[in-house]
């Protein structure tokens, strides 16, 4: 099969069209073509989502052997030489721009609208969920966004480690003691899987993911103020899995509008951006590790004000009821934080 004549490379929040690739082009040739478009040296590029016989292809593998379709998208990690030098200097502009809406009034107007609940019902009926690890009896549910929550997806880097939010693996290890963990990102499953692999999440032995959801599990809703927006309705999960409900589910996302259908179950995490400047001082997951432990024995999460999570103090009764570290029903020691 002939190699595609063009591919699309996603890098640093932009897309680059790589054209005129011939049948005998190798991965090395592709990297040179990408270098011309992005100025990222070939040796600094890491291409995600490409597989040859189940493994990332080496530079001498022909593109035709990968059986890619014309216009296929590839995610790249890599850094320009000048940006490597810039990463050692403090940014001059520290203004934080948050992609979000002031949705407090919209929540009341959206949460129980019949037409939106009908959309959730259709998702429950039609959505296929691939179970990675079976739900564990008695565990609560933690649903996590990816981009800007666990991973800085727009900064450039040569490895997932450079863009990974600090304390990520310690956070997931601790959370796994009391929660089943689900990943839900507003992207395609292909990129979610690539990111989870690059971050070392799917192969970690201290915790396990129950399943992952992509944009196909989301629905659109109409708000009077902001028009049509996409949201992540937790009712899709609750309809698929009876053991999870509004009482035992919490979701972290850096965009509050994703909580429109379930405002009492969402916690807006501070976005993790400019990883090279902030990874030494970002402690959001460290503090949220404690919060998840403190609320683990609570009977009804909807009674908690997750917007004030930093001020939460559990009662002595709840403290005594929280599961002790390591009591997760699985092999392996949980790291303490």
TrEMBL record:
It holds the Pfam family NIF. It catalyses: O-phospho-L-seryl-[protein] + H2O = L-seryl-[protein] + phosphate; O-phospho-L-threonyl-[protein] + H2O = L-threonyl-[protein] + phosphate. Its cofactor is Mg(2+). It is found in: Nucleus. Residues 135-295 form the FCP1 homology domain. Its main location: nucleus. Its EC number is 3.1.3.16. The keyword ATP-binding does not apply. NCBIfam families: HAD_IIID1. This is Ubiquitin-like domain-containing CTD phosphatase 1. It comes from Priapulus caudatus (Priapulid worm).
């Amino acid at each position: 099969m002939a190699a595609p004549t063009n591919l699309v490379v996603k890098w640093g929040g932009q897309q680059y069209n790589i054209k005129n690739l011939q049948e005998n082009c190798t991965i090395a040739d592709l990297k040179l073509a990408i270098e011309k478009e992005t100025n990222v040296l070939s040796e600094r590029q890491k291409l995600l989502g490409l597989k040859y016989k189940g493994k990332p292809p080496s530079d001498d593998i022909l593109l035709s052997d990968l059986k890619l379709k014309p216009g296929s998208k590839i995610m790249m990690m890599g850094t320009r030489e000048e940006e490597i030098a810039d990463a050692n200097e403090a940014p001059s502009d520290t203004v934080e721009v948050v992609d979000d809406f002031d949705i407090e009034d919209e929540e009341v107007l959206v949460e129980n609208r019949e037409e939106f609940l009908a959309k959730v019902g259709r998702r429950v009926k039609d959505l296929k969920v691939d179970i990675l690890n079976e739900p564990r009896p008695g565990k609560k549910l933690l649903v996590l966004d990816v981009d800007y929550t666990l991973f800085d997806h727009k900064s450039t880097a040569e490895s997932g480690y450079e863009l990974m939010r600090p304390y990520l693996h310690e956070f997931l290890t601790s959370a796994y003691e009391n929660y089943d963990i689900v990943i839900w990102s507003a992207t395609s499953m292909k990129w979610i899987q690539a990111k989870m692999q690059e971050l070392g999440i799917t192969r970690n032995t201290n915790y396990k993911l129950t399943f992952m959801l992509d944009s196909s599990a989301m629905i659109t809703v109409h708000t009077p103020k902001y028009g049509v927006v996409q949201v992540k309705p937790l009712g899709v999960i609750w309809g698929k899995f009876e053991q999870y409900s509004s009482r035992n589910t919490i979701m972290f996302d850096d965009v509050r509008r994703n909580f429109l259908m379930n405002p009492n179950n969402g916690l807006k995490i501070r976005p993790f951006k400019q990883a090279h400047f902030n990874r030494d001082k970002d402690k959001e997951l460290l503090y949220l590790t404690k919060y998840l432990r403190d609320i683990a024995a609570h009977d009804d999460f909807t009674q908690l004000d997750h917007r004030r999570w930093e001020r939460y103090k559990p009662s002595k009764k709840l403290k005594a009821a929280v599961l002790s570290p390591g009591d997760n029903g699985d092999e392996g020691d949980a790291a303490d934080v």
